[in-house]
Amino acid sequence: MREIKKNIFLETIPYENRHMSPRNLYIIRGEDRSLMVDTSNNTERDWNILKGMADALGIDYKKLDIFITHEHPDHTGLVPRLQALGARAFMNPDETRKRVDLLHSYLADEHARIENLRIVGVTKEETPEVYDTFMEYTTKAYASMEIPPELQFIPIHPGEMLSYGGYCFQVVLLKGHTFGQCGLYEPEKKLMFVGDQIMTTIVPIVGTQETDLGMLKCYLDSLSELKHKYRDCYFLPCHYGEIKDIEKEVNRIIFGYMDKCESMKHVLEEAGTALTTRDISVRTYGRSQGPPDYAHFASCTQIWAKTFSCMEYMMGEGFIERSERDGIIYWKAI
Description:
Number of helices: 10
Strand content: 15-25%
Distance between the termini: 54 Å
Order of helices and strands: EEEEHEHHEHHHEEEEEHEHEHHEE
Radius of gyration: 21 Å
């Protein structure tokens, strides 16, 4: 653990699994109440690291607040355990629109999984082998997972203020990665906690399969705002290292999405007919038409979500058109 700014402490949880990004835990220690920005996964190892950090700082859990940037399990997993010790949690209530978020949809009931598979073009009738495989994999993957209780939190909205340890943070909407993700901006000291909106190393997923929300456009607009309006800030992401050059990281992510959009548009133009989201992703990413092995099925759902987001964005820009038949969504170049 290290003090990165006065009264702001950072502890990073590394993982051996290369598919799990390291988690940055932040605590702003105050004289009266202290603030933790997000928690981590609900595992004993993560809990021991988090609790060890709080205990080393002499944190009174009854005087601890938690600001939840967004409701993904690697950010909220330990919230209930801290609440049981007396902590409070704050979150934008827009994050409760779980059907918007692909991760929550696949963690939901079997009906939701079937519906989400159908949206991208995986059905019992048309692609039985892929369908059966995914239903088997999702059942296996989530069988050992406890269904988390409905998260209890105090609603907080963009524009509201939180003060701790000599800092006065404004809640800022960072829509895109999820529907209601928010960050914390300190205008005087030029600090910004950005959740999963931006990070080094990877391109964050805009993970939705819900139509007409324009989530990728929201995300790209938010990134541009980070680059211009907040460019003089010290950015604190929830994964990976500090962001030293915000313009470079924003451009890297935007160019990454634009490159994928261009590739997907080319796939549609070459096909000359309407394709499902899965068809487009298979051709864009060079994947097999058959079912993946168990180790890679989760990455397929993320690729479908990214493809869906790119399709919605290009439809909004007038490059492609969307149609629907029997719950399956099709895309076609104009």
